[in-house]
Amino acid sequence: MIVITAPTGQIGRHVVQELLATDAPLRVVVRDASKLPDEVRDRVEVVEGSHGDAVVIDRALNGADALFWLAPMDATRTLDEVYLDFTRPAAEAIRRCGVARIVSVTALGRGTRWEDRAGLVTASIQMDDMLMATGAAFRGLAMPSFMDNILRQAASIRDKGLMFGPVDAVRKAPTTCTRDMGMVAAELLADGSWTGQQEVPVLGPEDLSMNDMAAIASDVLGREVRYVRTSYEDLKQQFLVYGASESFAQGYVDMFRAKDEGMDNIAERDATIHTQTSFRQWCEEELKSAVVG
Prior knowledge:
Layout: E1 2-5, H1 12-20, E2 26-30, H2 38-41, E3 45-48, H3 54-61, E4 66-69, H4 79-97, E5 101-107, H5 120-132, E6 137-143, E7 145-146, H6 154-160, E8 162-165, E9 173-176, H7 178-190, E10 197-201, E11 207-208, H8 210-221, E12 226-229, H9 232-241, H10 246-260, H11 279-292
Parallel strand pairs: 1-2, 1-4, 2-3, 4-5, 5-6, 6-10, 7-9, 8-12
Antiparallel strand pairs: 9-11
């Protein structure tokens, strides 16, 4: 039995679809079962509730062989609450239920000079330490920034031809897409042969700067798109205005500052990890429909 948390989210929904094709027995933990597509709900076992709730996660992991773990973001909470407090009941349930394998979504940064000062990245690494302390076999899918996050700026790209961010316009770095993350997670979850504990960098096929991405988006959309660098203070204030906690807002600043200093450039691509979606392909398949319909 494979248990999938956050099955309706950006990554989890791809994990579910990939695993349904394997006919593996699946159990999903979801706050609201009505949000599951009918074709998914009819083929999986559903545990309704929050996977941060001790009773819910204990029920979900009973008899489970493998777990896909993702801590949902809640900007109104502190980083410790989002990552550590939320995960603690699961770590205890993993021990009680004897779950053999865990695949977790995490971020690049472990073993670097930024590990203890990278905001959300630091908290995600501490979360993984908690999961690894259970003794289960573990794979942490360490990702750079998501291409998909640019969809949040679809209106600005459409109306103003602008995309914004706090990193240097010419710094090249890897990106990946949530679909590829889901595919890699599903492959690991379906494979019961691996042991040990390690992180797995999940990098897209190319390193691009924000200027590079703006140029590609311009070409795909048939209109000029420019990247505008914003300040870290503006980034923090934007989060605070929308109700984020001080801890979470500062965590985003610290994460992007570490990325801007080169944190995401340390990891090397692994030829065995299949992440073939280029940024151009992603723009053609995802961004174009969001911007121009």
